[in-house]
Amino acid sequence: MPTLTEKKTTRSGRPAPELIFGDLWEYDPAPETADPKLKARYDLFINGAFVAPKSGKYFDSINPANEQKLAEIALANKDDVDAAYAAAQRAFDTTWGKMPGRERAKYLYRIARLLQDRAREFAVAETLDGGKPIKESRDFDVPMAAAHFFYHAGWADKLEYVAPGHKVAPLGVVGQVIPWNFPLLMLAWKIAPALAMGNCVVLKPAETTSVTCLKLAEILQDAGLPPGVVNFVTGFGETGAAVTGHPTPAKIAFTGSTEVGKIIMRSLAGTDKKMTMELGGKAANIVFDDAPLDQAVEGIVNGIFFNQGHVCCAGSRLLVHEPVADKVLAKLKNRLKVLRVGDPMDKNTDLGAINSREQLKRITELVASGVKEGAELYQPPCKLPTKGFYFRPTLFSGVSMSHRIAREEIFGPVLSILTFRTVEEAVEKANNTAYGLSAGVWTDKGSRILKMSTELKAGVVWANTYNKFDPTSPFGGYKESGFGREGGRQGLLDYCQLT
Ligand code: NAI
Ligand code: MG
């Protein structure tokens, strides 16, 4: 329990930690101490081995919480990507594509278990490289990644049930590019279903968060996964374009910005390659006057401040029923005052570091546009660490649909609050966006939940909760949020051919 205190030393007699919100709340510092077992330099992972990049070049991955260099990462060029695809094709033709599903399952189970064995180490590495609070990487990212391997291991010997009445076959080699917001989890979402179905993979992680991907390569080696089944090439957008533009893959799976998704779609137009795209979002979290408001406030906070708002399905627009709008805003402000922003490696931290300087700039610019366009800003008074990339949790009230902060994906801890009077108005405002990834509905009325979930054009609609995930549940968007699904039986359908 937090203690109300003004003292300048902690209970243990050590100097007080930097107080984050005024002088009201104080916890003893609780730094995570597990060893992330990092290498100073990470090579590419091709054909089951770590190999130096042909360019001989490396780039730094930094810790966004303190801007210090964490490790060097190999920069893959086109020749490296060629080598990765050649290895994947060979593995598909000689081992993986021919292996019975029940045998593939054993590898996936092994990967899942090895990841569980090293869970704490992976959580620390994820937090150091990406900036998210350790309690999230420890309690969400890593366990969910293991769960995806377990879930898909369970499917590998039951693939005849993926599409009853049809025969399923793997596509062959697939190319995958992922972002930096859930580095290890997005990797698991991508490779677990691909492997269960018998495909081989070339994957590029995001340039700011390659470390856990390359640590997973160690697990793939320990699991005895045949060489070439999974290959990791690291680098920036140019490496990504080499992965998505290569002639070998039968399918490209991308998660990232709508802008880059469109570039990839244009480049693949006219080819027979399959695609799945998981792009941006501008979700509405809709609170009716009969909702349990304290619970809703927790859900709203979780919906937008989870992972510093670096979440494509973040509930970045709050639509609140007019009769309770003032009350909800007051409760939200109170809640924000006790959110703890700071060192992501402290187990008490709620909001960690913004992933990169570029992302911090993007958030800052969009927040400035909100102020300029006339919305009312609220930020709790809090000290931010002086080094590293941080942004205060931010509320905007008095937002109108035309404001940029109501339309554009901010991908940061910024909530835009709008109000509505009727169910119809709520649906119309929620759907009035280029995106359609997710939505939330808070109400006591079951019939209203059912009505809203059919009328909201969003791939996922949460009711009286937010940001809940499960490997069995398909995830994906409408409109500019992309197409295709990840997770569940539907996710597997996107990695097979049906006959
Ligand atoms: P991005 O879309 O540029 O990066 C995602 C991945 O695509 C990275 O691995 C990157 O190296 C790769 N990439 C970049 N250019 C490429 C190209 N031409 N061909 C193939 N791959 C390419 O996202 P960025 O710049 O990191 O973030 C920009 C904005 O995108 C964020 O502010 C946020 O709004 C949104 N975003 C959405 C995500 C989602 O999960 N839907 C994830 C990350 C960002
Ligand atoms: Mg990094």
Which key phrases capture this entry?
499 residues; alpha/beta; Aldehyde Dehydrogenase, Chain A, domain 1; Aldehyde Dehydrogenase, Chain A, domain 2; seven-stranded mixed β-sheet; 22 strands; globular; binds 1,4-dihydronicotinamide adenine dinucleotide; binds magnesium ion
The CATH homologous superfamily of the largest domain is called Aldehyde Dehydrogenase, Chain A, domain 1
Bound molecules: 1,4-dihydronicotinamide adenine dinucleotide, magnesium ion
Strand arrangement within the widest β-sheet reads 16-17-18-15-14-19-20
CATH topology of the largest domain: Aldehyde Dehydrogenase, Chain A, domain 1
SSE blueprint:
Blueprint lengths: L2 E2 L20 E2 L14 E2 L1 E3 L2 E3 L6 E6 L4 E7 L3 H17 L6 H17 L1 H12 L3 H23 L11 E3 L2 E5 L5 H14 L3 E5 L6 H12 L7 E3 L4 H8 L6 E5 L2 H11 L5 E5 L5 E4 L5 H13 L11 E5 L3 H13 L19 H16 L3 E3 L15 E4 L6 H4 L6 E7 L2 H9 L6 E5 L3 H10 L4 E4 L18 E2 L4 H6 L2 E3 L1
Parallel strand pairs: 3-7, 9-10, 9-12, 10-11, 12-13, 14-15, 14-19, 15-18, 17-18, 19-20
Antiparallel strand pairs: 1-2, 4-5, 6-7, 8-22, 13-21, 16-17
Helix pairs in contact: 2-4, 3-4, 4-5, 9-10
The structure holds 1,4-dihydronicotinamide adenine dinucleotide and magnesium ion.
The site of 1,4-dihydronicotinamide adenine dinucleotide has 27 residues, from helix 7, helix 8 and helix 11.
